[in-house]
Amino acid sequence: MTDSPTSARKPVAASSPQPQKRNLVARILAAQWLPLILIVLAVLFIVQNRARISINLFWAHLESPLWFILVITIVVGLIIGLLTARRRAQRAPQR
Predict the structure, then answer these.
(1) Is 14 among the domain residues?
(2) Which of 18, 42, 61, 62 has the highest CB neighbour number within 10 Å of its CB?
């Protein structure tokens, strides 16, 4: 008896279902739900707060609509977050 290539048994790998690949839009939306919800909440908060307020910071006195101050605060927070994330990303390969 000789073993021919057709009679040799090949080990059968355990068949595992392949994870379904989601398209790009679904992956982006899944990863961005929390930021999208937070942006919508921030916009709603800003729209509902349109009263005129007075702000005193050290020697500066400013009177402005509250929505404008809120927008400035959010923009400054985003800039700080982006700069912090960029710096963290630059330092990560050094570790």
Answers:
(1) no
(2) 42
What range does the domain containing 30 cover?
A: 24-94
CA distance 83 to 31: 21
The 8-class DSSP code of residue 29 comes to H
Amino acid occupying residue 37? I
| Residue 77 identity (one-letter amino acid) | G
Backbone φ, ψ for residue 15 (5° rounding): -85, 120
Q: What is the mean pLDDT of the chain?
A: 77
Confidence band (pLDDT; 50, 70, 90) for 54? very high
Confidence (pTM): 0.52
Residue with tokens 């090949």: 10
3-state secondary structure of 81: helix
Number of domains in the chain: 1
Q: How many CB atoms lie within 10 A of CB 87?
A: 10
Half-sphere exposure of 31 (CA within 13 A, CB side): 7
pLDDT on residue 15: 53
